[in-house]
């Protein structure tokens, strides 16, 4: 079973973030430029929240707010569910499924070291299953 640390080793180490006081339009532009669905909201080194496209749709578009005049802090999810580098991919899959979220910040010793998306987790689970299937086929054939 793979750990989050092993999963992060296969990804780019870049962490995309924005400040809580930034206008929402800047966050949406950054997500579009980077082709990502969420940004970490950081106050210096501290994780203050997470902002997803879903937050934008529900808290700006549907409520008729202005993307230029609304700060990120007003629409971000402040109660962030995170994982540690030692957590398993199975545990992470359970978290995203039960919590209906798509992104998990990875926090080690109080510091954000990465983000794991549901897409990353699905790829990891498929790779693990493929490896197990190959192992079983070799066992049966021998």
From TrEMBL:
Family matches, as InterPro entries: CBS_dom, CBS_dom_sf, CBSX3_CBS_dom, Diverse_CBS-Domain
SUPFAM superfamilies listed in its UniProt record: CBS-domain pair
SMART domains per UniProt: CBS
Domain CBS: 11-67, 76-132
Gene3D superfamilies: CBS-domain (3.10.580.10)
Presence of keyword Isomerase: no
The entry's keywords: CBS domain
Entry annotated with the keyword NADP: no
Superkingdom of this protein's organism: Bacteria
Protein name: CBS domain-containing protein
